[in-house]
Design brief:
Blueprint lengths: L1 E5 L3 H12 L3 E6 L6 H7 L6 E2 L3 H5 L5 H9 L2 H10 L4 E3 L4 E4 L5 H14 L3 E4 L2 E5 L3 E6 L2 E6 L2 E4 L16 H6 L4 E7 L3 E3 L3 H7 L3 E9 L2 E9 L3 E3 L1 H5 L1 H6 L5 E4 L6 H10 L3 H7 L4 H10 L2 H4 L2 H9 L1 E3 L1 E4 L7 E6 L9 E2 L2 E6 L13 H15 L1
Helix pairs in contact: 1-16, 4-16, 11-12, 11-15
């Protein structure tokens, strides 16, 4: 039995892991010069492989009920145990994220995994991209020209439309549409947002991090760090609220800069201080927030303890747009779930499985994206 896998991201590599364990002959093709390019780029910002917590809480972070069922077939605990089997020890950070132990870098995780697969007989061919496929044959463009391979199972993990420098450029969409496979248009997910903040202010304070703030949008709430950029804001709370913002972009985001202080407590500190500046210093507010408040309040309002306290607790920001999709950490959109069965097979091509970001799902950062990819690869490879 022969399984061909195209794409060498985490979902594809996990499919290869399970397929070879099941006794399959496995051949992996990758369009880039090396495997796991996006996997490594993701590791640059803190290499959280998954997230701790009960499975019922864990699956609540996924956009589609189908992903809930897939995650339950390969849970966060299953991933930790499997990583240990191939020699990657992990630990749970203070925020609940699961990391490889500090001595193990992202490239070490990837190389350990690749070595494990090669030891099991998995073959890799690089600079090779999908040209076409049917239910038992795939056509691949290589540096030597177009080649065809027959297969018993084909797994496609071709990525979505963000971070195209890693090979994730959605070039496959037109092929799928020509085969009447419904593909929902890609949109940015886990992306920063452009805001109507003064350009001079953004230039002055870009790079400032507002820690432990609460961001609210349309009744959805998230606590964390918000980064001020040259275009607006980004950070985990903003990424988490992306689906809400996408559904109602007219609604502003609201930031509480002092969530551990009640409105009354802030008013009390300000009113008992000798002046506003002294009171703001006592509240330990960064200069960027103080300047921000000055931009939006008149002189009379700025010296009014109640007005400035309300601004600190409920700072409203109008969103103008998402950042370009190629800057986004991930995407929503992709192959419709109506095209797939519970094992991620295409209904119109039952020998072909689709995994990873090619499929229409989304989740926040913090380990949920990678766990989703691992679980999809597990389901496809196991079946």
């Amino acid at each position: 039995m022969k399984t061909i896998i195209i794409g060498a991201g985490p979902a594809s590599l996990m499919a290869a892991t399970q397929a070879v364990k099941n006794g399959q002959e496995v051949l992996v093709f990758e369009k880039m010069k090396t495997a796991g390019r996006k996997f490594l780029v993701a590791g640059d910002g803190g290499f959280n492989l998954s997230h701790n917590g009960t499975i019922d809480d864990f699956v609540s972070y996924y956009s589609h009920i189908q992903m809930t069922q897939i995650i339950k077939r390969f849970k966060n605990d299953d991933l930790v145990n499997w990583l240990k089997e191939i020699g990657i020890e992990t630990y749970v950070g203070s925020s609940g994220k699961i990391f490889p132990i500090k001595e193990i870098k992202p490239a070490m995780v990837l190389n350990t995994w690749l070595d494990h697969l090669k030891d099991q007989g998995v073959k890799f061919i690089y600079n090779a991209s999908l040209e076409d496929f049917n239910n038992n044959q795939v056509f691949i463009k290589t540096i030597s020209g177009l080649v065809s391979h027959t297969f018993d199972k084909l797994v496609l993990g071709l990525g979505a439309a963000s971070w195209s420098k890693t090979g994730s450029d959605a070039a496959w969409v037109s092929l799928f549409e020509s085969k009447n496979i419904r593909v929902i248009p890609f949109q940015a997910s886990n992306a920063g947002v452009n805001c109507n903040l003064p350009i001079e202010f953004l230039k002055q304070f870009q790079g400032c991090v507002f820690k432990n703030v609460i961001v609210t949008h349309n009744g959805n709430i998230r606590m964390g760090e918000v980064l001020l950029t040259e275009y607006g804001v980004e950070g985990a709370p903003i990424y988490y609220l992306n689906p809400s913002i996408r559904q109602n972009s007219i609604e502003p985001i609201v930031i509480d800069f002092k969530p551990n202080h009640s409105l009354e407590e802030i008013i009390d500190v300000l009113s008992k201080s000798k002046n506003v500046s002294d009171g703001l210093k006592k509240l330990k507010l960064p200069n960027a927030i103080i300047t921000w408040c000055k931009l939006y309040l008149s002189k009379e309002e700025f010296i009014d303890s109640e007005k400035i306290a309300l601004t600190i607790k409920n700072f409203s920001i109008t969103i103008t747009s998402f950042r370009p999709i190629d800057e986004a950490i991930s995407c929503c959109g992709g192959v419709s779930w109506n095209e797939l069965d519970e094992d991620l097979r295409l209904k119109s091509f039952p020998s072909v499985h689709i995994v990873g970001e090619m499929v229409d799902w989304e989740a926040p950062t913090g380990g949920y994206l990678l766990q989703g990819a691992f679980a999809m690869g597990y389901v496809a490879g196991k079946s």
